[in-house]
Tyr recombinase domain-containing protein
Amino acid sequence: MTVIYVHSVLKSAIEHAVREDELLRNVARNVKTTTHRPRRFRPLTATEARQFLDATRGDRLHALYELALRTGLRKGELLGLHWEDLDLATGTASIRRSLQRIRTGGLTHLPTKTRASERRIALPTECIHSLKKHKQRQGKERAIEGSAWHDGGLVFTTPTGGPLDPANLTRRCRSFLNRAGLRPIRFHDLRHSTATLLLEQGIDLVVIKELLGHAHIGVTAGVYAHVRLRLQPWIFSGIGGSDAPVAERCR
């Protein structure tokens, strides 16, 4: 629910009260709302993304980081994945829920962010291989723990099968960025990195919107407008087969 939406509803309600002579005037008319400006981010380049994945290789959660960078899943969506959501034979994943820490302090599974966020995506070959290895590793951990294993069906768990704490995952991500010699970024910026790298490869915006689970194409276009602007010279350079600077060809 946005500020603009709340203001619109409130203004309409007060306007009705004015018409019914319950109030003298609609004070909400004088309130100016501002359009939300997307937070700026610095996504990883293709080289940096490879460095990051190399740093996580060998870690028990390597498959999670690979899935994050190659599919753009949100942190909660990754942590909420169950094995029943994955079909490694056909290479697909169904995104149905999100693991979140609620105000009372506990971890719980919630519906996805929006209806569009509930989606089915194709898994890259690299992710399928990583997930198969991860499943084997988890099987060994389960055997070691025996009856102490918490069998919740989660793909990514603690060494005893319990759900992963989102805050701990963020800290682990930062440690791998540091190990790779990369600048600190938010975990969510891995998702931005996915979209940016796909745009740079010429992938259609609609495909990226469906992969990320955005409710509207306008959300995708707005968040990554600066990336598309940066790519425009590359598009123009292909017109007429000329390698001349854009400014020269537009004279």
Q: What stands out?
A: The first helix runs from residue 3 to 19. The domain at 46-198 is CATH 1.10.443.10 (hpI Integrase; Chain A).
